[in-house]
Amino acid sequence: MSSEARSLVAVSAGLSQPSSTRLLADRLVAATERSLRERGVDVSTEVVELRDLAQDLVNNLLTGFPSERLRETIERTLAADGLIAVTPIFSASYSGLFKLFFDVVERDRLAGMPVLLGATGGTARHSLALEHAMRPLFAYLGAATVPTAVYAAAEDWGQADRPADIGLRERIERAGGELATAVTARAAPLRRDEFEDPIPFEDLLRGG
Amino acid sequence: MQFGIFSVSDITTDPTTGRTPSEHERLQAVIAMARKAEEVGLDVFALGEHHNPPFFSSSPTTTLAYIAARTERITLSTATTLITTNDPVKIAEDYAMLQHLAGGRVDLMLGRGNTGPVYPWFGQDIRNGIPLAVENYALLHRLWREDVVDWEGKFRTALTGFTSTPRPLDGIPPFVWHGSIRSPEIAEQAAYYGDGFFHNNIFWPSFHVRRMVGLYRRRFEHYGHGPADTAIVGLGGQIFMRRNSQDAIREFRPYFDRAPVYGGVSSLEEYADTTPLTVGSPEQVIERTLGFREFAGDYQRQLFLVDHAGLPLTTVLEQIELLGEIVPVMRREFEALRPAHVPSDPPTHASLLAAKQTDAAAPTAATAPVPSPVAVGERS
Predict the structure, then answer these.
(1) The pTM is what?
(2) Which residues of B touch A200 (CB under 8 A)?
């Protein structure tokens, strides 16, 4: 059993407080943590609420640099062993706030990152947005998305005349297990710090 | 320590009057600024190079040569000279010409340029920005140091038996700064050659400046040019001063709020908090600027941007006068904090000439070894 501790970051683009998006993120976190601990893997998790960073994200787009708070959040996210990304579905796709975060992360830095996708919406009719909008975004970023993505519509949380959909709970458990597997299997990311370890100039001169 | 001003040569509508200066007016304004800078005792005037509106300065050596003829003491420089889209042969020629005309009062800062569409206008591609900067400078470096050059590279026609004329004044190439906001390759390049490194940190938080300058200093030592703290560093800065800080903020706010360069972002206060922008009293500017050495170390050149965002010339000249008042104070304070072995100034033509004459008189005198660049044409 691996005793090496792993870290998870969950990015939630929910807008209200509390939000069903955050609720889904918390459930996905809990399922992933449970699955990791069953394998003897210690895990620590941070949940990032993008609503708290909304102004910083817009400023970053306009100025070209992140605020100290946003920079630290991005660095912690990129340093995680696994990412849980959850957004409400607006106008047939992820929300603008959700996209902003992944727009300011430098390209390639999410390459190989195990990612569990989650989304929420008022009706189940938008559930395929996970597959036609969200998964291609992460494919572009080179992230390793796990096969099960989880969509939670209003009715999945329970309705007046019947209990919450057992299917949602099962999907959450399955997706959490898949992310735990990916996180456990992933070798420690090898990342060269281009400031600590620059390309020697002789190599640059040779066209390296 | 050298203090000066630089202009990026933007033509911006004054948001308080709605008036847009003509190219001719801005070009004349730059001449007036340079002369005022010399008059109040500043050390450097630097001018940018751009090939697209809203900028006018496409040919900095022409303007700088004119300024050289109208001034006597001030060092003329660039911010920046495009090492990517200019032919390095033409840079070698133009700046050697300028150096002769200005009696050696010339150095230059090389930059890549970050406007994608400009590159193809000059037959280049922004995706080759770093390789262009590396190869073109390797050639420029040789053209100023070798009388006859045979050369083959990837980005321009080969040279056989080429002599760049005029030869540098007194056989001393102009001192070169390499400017970059965020590319570690350029800090590495400056370190490799033992040239200066300039971080125009005006739109960036100190975190980035610290990383870039730190890399340059460490690698400067690695390449055998001397201890890291003796590497030659220049910084940008951006100020607006009035005797009373509230007056400065009130007057500058509309320029901040509406100037395209700030992107209409956050608030002046927030921006000034995270970047080196300082809007306030002369005392505040002194204090803030002295703080730069906390993240950049003891450095040699401080250039301020004072003429952008549509500020009218009369205001800009007032800013330069105020700068003339506080520079002696800043110089004294910086020098009081500087360790004895750290140079106060970057190399100048006069100091390089004196060093050359000393070397000639005593051929065994130790000089920092300059690694000879790998021939670029020999890549596999």
Answers:
(1) 0.86
(2) 188
